[in-house]
Design goal:
The chain is mainly alpha-helical. The chain contains three helices and no strands.
């Protein structure tokens, strides 16, 4: 499976009826990560690669946001 983009992760969450927008990009990432973990623990994501790829995309975005804040 190819890595997911941040936009694809948002679309994945939206497919489950989860829309996150707080106005704070870093806060959005944290909430998205929490929601993904909940979906994974509930067995709703199916393929574990989807979970890993989604987490990777979110963590990459968090890193980009942290770098740009300096």
């Amino acid at each position: 499976m190819r890595p997911m983009s941040f936009i694809e992760v948002k679309e994945l969450l939206r497919a489950f009826g989860i829309v996150i927008y707080t106005g704070n990009a870093l806060g959005d990432c944290i909430l998205m990560e929490d929601e993904l973990k909940e979906l994974h623990e509930a067995g709703m994501l199916g393929d574990p690669d989807i979970f890993r790829s989604s987490l990777l995309a979110i963590r990459k975005r968090k890193s980009e946001l942290n770098e740009s804040s300096y």
